[in-house]
Specification:
Blueprint (H helix, E strand, L loop, with lengths): L1 H17 L5 H7 L2 H18 L6 H17 L5 H22 L3 E5 L6 E4 L5 E4 L4 E5 L7 E12 L6 E4 L4 E4 L3 E7 L2 E8 L2 E4 L4 E4 L3 E6 L2 E7 L11 E8 H11 L3 E6 L5 E7 L3 H11 L2 E5 L4 E6 L1
Parallel strand pairs: 5-6, 15-18
Antiparallel strand pairs: 1-4, 2-3, 3-5, 4-5, 5-8, 6-7, 7-10, 8-9, 9-12, 10-11, 12-13, 14-16, 17-18
Length: 308
């Protein structure tokens, strides 16, 4: 009987505190240290969400009203149940705020599409076909960071560190022009101006103008000089130097709305050359005649490849 009376007293003082009838100092006199600590943690949580953005104030007010209503209706139940119901309401509100307060900007391109993107600091990004970048507009002033999937050419304004993150590695600069490809296990960075730091899980390289680095399956396999002032795909032609044919075929699929049946060819053949980004017939002839491979359109979008 004595234990039940303690619980009832705790519930009574908790209800009085939640309605503002007694202060926190008074509450501390009537409940255990463990109970008081739990109540204060709850109060911190409520005060924190009262400071959130104005558009969500009404939603939070409704949640508070529901909490108050439930606390009055259940004053005779154990305080643990009352505390749990409030915690659940707060979790629900956090989910709502996260959904409405999303600051991520996402930009992408479709098959054969290029897109020029102006970032918040005036930097420019040109996205190649079937590529995607994203960044957080709220943290941009403190941290210039974008995430890339696919291929893009960057013209970065001078300023704080600018980082491009990909699944294959990251590129860090202060202000420069460079091209990044990150598709599947293929990662390539070419520096056209300034200085570029390229890192992955096992190594890092500094690139100067005209330098490039290529990473396949996590390992740096080649670095070479480039003479061009910008990537050729910007001008309508995709160029490759000593690259497995597999990645050239992938680039064709990204550029044109087609799919290749490769089961009858060796995709590891090394290719050097280019293809036209505007005309599929010219592109097919350029790549596959040079590699002695026959190609045949079997359906509307399927091309069968065979060795001669």
């Amino acid at each position: 009987m004595k234990e039940n009376k303690v619980h009832n007293d705790s519930e009574y003082f908790l209800a009085a505190w939640s309605e503002g009838k007694i202060s926190a100092e008074e509450l501390k006199k009537y409940v255990s240290k463990e109970d008081f600590k739990a109540y204060m943690e709850l109060e911190k949580g409520i005060h924190l969400y009262e400071k959130l953005e104005a558009p969500l104030d009404r939603s939070f007010q409704k949640i508070q009203e529901k909490i108050k209503y439930k606390s009055k209706a259940r004053v005779r139940k154990l305080y643990v149940n009352w505390f749990t119901s409030i915690a659940a309401s707060i979790v629900l509100f956090v989910g709502l705020y996260s959904l409405l307060g999303n600051n991520t900007v996402l930009l992408n391109t479709g098959t054969g599409e290029h897109k020029n993107v102006a970032l918040l600091d005036g930097s420019e990004v040109i996205l190649n076909s079937k590529s995607e970048i994203s960044y957080n507009k709220r943290t941009w002033k403190k941290e210039r960071e974008v995430t890339l999937k696919g291929e893009a050419y960057f013209k970065v304004q001078k300023g704080s560190t600018f980082t491009v993150k990909t699944i294959n590695g990251s590129v860090t600069v202060l202000g420069t022009q460079f091209n990044v490809i990150s598709r599947d296990n293929f990662f390539e960075v070419v520096c056209y101006e300034g200085k570029v730091s390229v890192k992955n899980n096992i190594s890092s390289v500094i690139l100067l103008p005209g330098n490039s680095v290529r990473v396949l399956n996590g390992e740096i396999i080649e670095d070479h000089q480039v003479k061009e002032q910008s990537p050729s795909w910007i001008l309508g032609e995709s160029t490759f130097k000593s690259i497995p044919l597999k990645y050239v075929i992938n680039a064709l699929e990204n550029q044109y709305n087609v799919h290749f049946d490769r089961s009858l060819i060796d995709e590891s053949v090394i290719y050097t050359g280019s293809f036209n980004n505007k005309n599929l017939e010219i592109a097919l002839a350029t790549v596959f005649k040079a590699t002695n491979i026959k190609y045949k359109m079997t359906t509307a979008n399927i091309i069968l490849l065979e060795n001669n």
